[in-house]
């Protein structure tokens, strides 16, 4: 069966968002379970993922979760907003990068003769699976999948576009500053960072870890990133409706105060 036609599974967050733009009403909503959703901590697959990733070496945990097929975040298709952005023609062309790409649906959706996309995942099983389903697609020359650690990988060229979806919130929050520094180093000076922010609160552990717009802003702003767009993702899949923000960021050189 083609990977894109697999049944869409859910398991990541279901509670209403808390973000930098949280109003008292959204704060009140934080305790509600979103329609059709579940608290991720009540999803056995998320519980299993958490056990595996927290058991010692996170890289090993991710590999084991892929080997065991414990991938509760996996949509089985590209996230609709990416397809919409591609169609809108507003995305940078050139070179794009998707860290923590998993099955790589978004990698393939972004790839075209004008935009070469690198999908990177720490799990060699994930990368194998991504290659398996995608290698005979018509745009297969326009993307590649690599197994490596985002924090250690050193490409020969920077990127015009970086897309993060459920990667930031999958990382131990102590790595967030390093995530921002790494993103900053991988992006061309005039490049664009897109964070499809999966809002989640009230989690004692992760992944996914508690995640707000402010969490991104705190680590990106000191590096010169500015928000160009921060809006609700109207195209989120049903169980994630109201839980996703589309953030488009550009980095501007720090101005000298002299
Ligand atoms: C929650 S999944 C998201 C996958 C994909 N972005 C999606 O939305 O379907 C997080 C992914 O990040 C990968 N990952 C975790 N730590 C990583 C690291 N340090 N470097 C690269 N990939 C990593 C995991 O193997 C996993 O596939």
Automatic annotation (TrEMBL):
Identify the stretch(es) annotated as Disordered. Answer: 16-48
Record's Gene3D superfamilies?
Answer: Vaccinia Virus protein VP39
| A single MF term (Gene Ontology) | S-adenosylmethionine-dependent methyltransferase activity
InterPro entries in the record: SAM-dependent_MTases_sf, TPMT
**UniProt keyword terms in alphabetical order:** Methyltransferase, Phosphoprotein, S-adenosyl-L-methionine, Transferase
Q: Which GO terms describe its biological process?
A: methylation
**Where are the compositionally biased (Low complexity) regions?**
16-38
| Descriptive protein name | Methyltransferase domain-containing protein
| Gene source species | Oryza meyeriana var. granulata
């Amino acid at each position: 069966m083609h990977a894109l036609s697999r049944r869409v599974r859910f398991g990541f967050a279901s509670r209403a968002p808390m973000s930098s733009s949280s109003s008292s009403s959204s704060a009140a909503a934080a305790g509600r379970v979103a329609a059709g959703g579940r608290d991720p901590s009540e999803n056995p697959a998320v519980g299993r993922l958490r056990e595996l990733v927290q058991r010692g070496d996170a890289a090993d945990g991710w590999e084991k979760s892929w080997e065991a097929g414990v991938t509760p975040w996996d949509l089985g298709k590209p996230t609709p907003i990416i397809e919409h952005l591609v169609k809108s023609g507003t995305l940078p062309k050139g070179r794009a990068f998707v860290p923590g790409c998993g099955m790589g649906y978004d990698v393939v959706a972004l790839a075209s003769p004008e935009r070469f996309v690198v999908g990177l995942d720490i799990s060699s099983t994930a990368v194998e699976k991504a290659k398996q389903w995608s290698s005979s697609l018509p745009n297969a020359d326009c993307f590649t999948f690599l197994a490596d650690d985002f924090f250690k990988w050193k490409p020969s060229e920077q990127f015009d576009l970086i897309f993060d979806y459920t990667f930031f919130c999958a990382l131990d929050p102590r790595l967030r500053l390093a995530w921002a520094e790494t993103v900053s180093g991988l992006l061309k000076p005039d490049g664009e960072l897109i964070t499809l922010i999966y809002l989640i609160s009230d989690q004692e552990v992760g992944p996914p870890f508690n995640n707000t717009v402010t969490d991104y802003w705190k680590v990106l702003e000191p590096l010169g990133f500015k928000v160009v767009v921060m809006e609700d993702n109207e195209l989120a899949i049903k169980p994630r409706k109201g839980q996703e923000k589309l953030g488009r960021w550009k980095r501007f050189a720090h101005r000298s105060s002299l």
